[in-house]
Amino acid sequence: MVMKREDGAVQPGIRWGKFTTRIPGIHVNFSLPEIIQGGLLTTATGGVVAALTMKFFQVPFEVAWAVVLIQLFWLWVVPTVICGEPYAPGWLTPALPLVMAFLGTFEAGVPAIHAMMAVTICVSAIFLFFAVTGLSRRFFQWVPVELRAAIIFGGSIAAFNAEFSRLATMPITLPIVWAVVFLLMFSLWFTKAKQTNKALNLLGSMALLVGFLVAAVVGPLSGELSFDIQMGWHIPQITAYIKAVSPFFVGWPEMSVYLKAFPLALMIYIFIFGDLVLGSTLLEQAGEVRKDEKIEVDNTKSHIILFIRNMGHLLMAGPFIPLHGPIWTGVHVFLTERYKSGRKNMDSIFSGTFNWYWPAFILIFLVPVVTFMKPLLAVALSITLILTGFACAYVAISMVKTPAAQGYAFFVGMVIAKFGPAWGMGVGIGLYILLLAQKIPGVFKKPQTEEI
Fold first, then answer.
1. Which of 285, 317, 272, 279 is nearest to 124 (CA)?
2. H or E stretch covering 19
């Protein structure tokens, strides 16, 4: 029987230092709505990692599928079960287009693996530094909002470039899938309609899954996809995967690769901090509605957990291309909204974050699921990137108000997408001083008034 939480208290668990371990069925109950939706969506989106691994690390599908199981451990077990993080954990999706563009400058295979190792280590070092010093908020204040907008624009442009070039392979399936997902997630008239219609609201909450199902119908009809559904159990080839990508088998990157990766790591941290701010804000708003549970949010703890997740994944099974981030934005928004609807619908915020992920541990072993997902991996990656590009675009636009700032953000974003993070940071800082800086020490002096 699940331990009952006292009104206004923290959800029960095993406390150890800053962290709290909670065991499903003992400290957290099971919730059927999250189990059904979360299991399917987590498995489907997890296939994106396999697609990325196949593309950049030159690993065959049968081996690449193992990363879906490995990432579930570091994605969900470590932050949610072991450490007690209240966020719905995810990848650092907004930075994924920039990471892919960076990896594209290296030869696929071991060079790209080394490049991703360098990115992971640099980002993890930044996590650890800010966790120890507590300077994360001050760093974010140092970075001008216009430069932050430019970096986000860069991610948007890189995502759109990647997906528009992919259209040649699936000119019918991809546009239809994009249109369906955009409709369900961003359409103004659909948003109004689903507020009064439960069926449309349910459809909108499962936009990614609907997109995959549409691709599964349109793809075969257009001749762009074909399925070979088989039965049985699939055992992920974890040993083969580790031998293909682990630094203990393929070696460590040279110092020159770290130097190339560090500017990108700084950009990535800006995305991460933004996710942390968004995640904690949503929980604070939910806490104002749900007085029956105290949700503990600790920025330092979150930095430590992110360091553990990314470095732990690297040391166990090589680099993880999407990188582990604080929140799965869409899911975190969805779960906090359900949480606000009352304790009868969701007893604890952890009822959502626990039940959304664990069914995927079962589904990834089923051959029918694996063989169904295999042709759809490219579509899954495309949906992820096109949504990321769309979201990054409107976020970046909303951050800058003046014509000079808007032009600056778009121009620097183009530089980042076209020439890489090092050039982007250099041009971004230089152009900011030329165009937007309000005060440059030693250049602008306060005019002196004449004495009468």
1. 272
2. strand 19-21
CA angle at 211 for the pair 336 and 33, rounded to the nearest 5°? 35
Instruction: Show pLDDT as tens, one digit a residue, over the chain (452 residues).
Output: 678 888 888 888 999 988 999 988 888 888 877 887 778 778 877 888 888 899 999 999 889 999 999 999 999 999 999 999 999 898 887 788 889 889 989 999 999 999 999 999 999 999 999 888 888 777 767 878 888 888 888 878 887 887 888 888 889 999 999 998 888 877 888 878 877 887 887 777 677 778 888 998 999 999 888 888 888 888 889 999 999 999 999 999 999 999 999 989 988 887 787 778 777 877 888 888 888 888 888 888 999 999 999 999 999 999 999 999 998 876 787 788 778 877 877 888 898 899 989 988 898 888 888 788 778 877 877 877 787 788 778 778 888 888 888 899 889 889 888 887 778 888 888 988 888 877 554 444 545 544 43
Assess contact for 356 and 88: CB atoms under 8 A: yes
- Which residues fall within 8 angstroms of residue 381, CB to CB, at 6 or more apart? 48, 51, 52
Bridge partner list, 90: 325
The Cα 80–Cα 340 span in angstroms is: 20
Q: At what angle do helices 32-57 and 238-245 cross, to 10 degrees?
A: 40
Domain ranges of the chain: 14-170+225-435
Tokens 């331990």 correspond to what residue? 3
Using CA atoms, how far residue 278 sits from 42, 207, 386, in Å, is: 21, 21, 21
Four-residue CA torsion sign, 81, 82, 88, 93: negative
User: What pTM was estimated for this model as a whole?
Assistant: 0.78
Q: Kindly report the number of other CB atoms within 10 A of residue 25's CB atom.
A: 10
The rounded distance, in Å, linking the Cα atoms of 85 and 45 is 21
Nearest residue to 87 via CA among 315, 352, 431 = 352
Q: Are 327 and 76 in contact (CB under 8 A)?
A: no
For residue 324, the cross-strand partners are 91
Beta bridge partners of 16: 19
172's tokens: 């019918």
Query: Strands 324-325 and 90-91, how do they pair?
Result: antiparallel
Helix then strand then coil, % of the chain, to nearest 5: 70, 5, 30
